[in-house]
Amino acid sequence: MGRVPAWVYVLLFFATFFIALSVFTVLFGLGVLKPSWFDFVSSLFTVERKVVVTKTFTETVTRTVTVSPAFPREFGEVVFSRTYIIRDFTSGREYVAAVSIPASMYFNYRLYKKHEPMTLSTRINYVKNLVEPDNQVVRVIANDLWGLANGDPELYAVFVLQLLHQMVYRKATYAKYPVETLVEWSGDCDNLAVLAASILEAKGVDTVLVMVKTEEGYHVMLGIHLPFEPKLPGKYGRSKILYFTTATNPSRKYYAAEATWKFGVNPFDPHYTGTLLGDSLWKTFKIVKVIDV
């Protein structure tokens, strides 16, 4: 009997392999066979788990997410820290403040909240839903600034503007939540205005968002109500104090405030237009809409 050629063995091997694979595929498709090694191989690439993340400020969030196997264990340890300066030019004191934002909170907004591309003129109707005065991080900032201002609502509002003016102005195609703007330390005019409104409203300072049309296009400003006329503008050379009113309450004044800032200009010098309430950086503009948040 002659020797069997090697190619016959190779042919038999592949034939057996493909027959076994076909049987396996049929059984797996019918649900009869679910080999554990298949799940194991899948887990080497991604794993879908129920993750319970206990965040700073004692808030617990449960989400089902697809992550790498090692990520959930470290997720609760990651925080974003943001440091900013507050200068009280009425007393000459300067403070350095910091806030920590849990990564879990940021990614909850970034990954699970709806972000639809919109033009500024369209999303102005949507941004009031993003103002969150009760957010834990927002309240921490509000408490810090309120304490530094000794409860003076005008100085408190100026400190909020100082915080915003240290951020980078960057155009966005969608509206952002306050936590997103804080972590990314940048935003469009409406993103920054939403953050400011959230911090102001956290201490009961009535605020509106004001869309205007300037020589450069649409822009969002703030209107901040005080129980008195702002005192600081007169002390620092302002001859006019700009304010807005609403159709529902025309006698209630909301003093203009600018959420954005020009790079390279000192945001702490009260002699610069835009640092105080009642200021406007625009020579002319037309009010398009006033939105009470």
Short account of what is shown:
The protein is α+β, with helices and mostly antiparallel strands and 293 residues long.
Q: What's the SSE blueprint?
A:
Layout: H1 6-29, H2 36-43, E1 47-55, E2 59-67, H3 71-75, E3 79-88, E4 93-102, H4 103-112, H5 120-123, H6 136-148, H7 153-165, E5 168-169, H8 178-184, E6 186-187, H9 189-202, E7 207-214, E8 217-224, H10 232-235, E9 243-244, E10 254-257, E11 285-292
Parallel strand pairs: 5-6
Antiparallel strand pairs: 1-2, 3-4, 7-8, 7-11, 8-10, 9-10
Helix pairs in contact: 6-7, 6-9, 7-9, 8-9
What key phrases describe this protein's structure?
alpha+beta, two-stranded antiparallel ribbon, 11 strands, five-stranded antiparallel β-sheet
Q: Would you mind describing this structure in some detail?
A:
The chain has 293 residues and is of the alpha+beta class. The protein folds into three domains: 6-34; 45-75, no CATH class; 78-292, no CATH class. It has ten helices and eleven strands. The chain has helices at residues 6-29, 36-43, 71-75, 103-112, 120-123, 136-148, 153-165, 178-184, 189-202, 232-235; strands spanning 47-55, 59-67, 79-88, 93-102, 168-169, 186-187, 207-214, 217-224, 243-244, 254-257, 285-292. The strands form four sheets. The chain has a five-stranded antiparallel sheet with strand order 9-10-8-7-11, covered by helices on one side. Strands 1-2 form a two-stranded antiparallel ribbon. A two-stranded antiparallel ribbon has the order 3-4. Strand 5 (168-169), helix 8 (178-184) and strand 6 form a beta-alpha-beta unit. Helix 7 packs antiparallel against helix 9 (189-202). The longest helix has 24 residues, at 6-29. The radius of gyration is 29 Å and the shape is elongated. Residues 32-71 have low confidence and may be disordered.
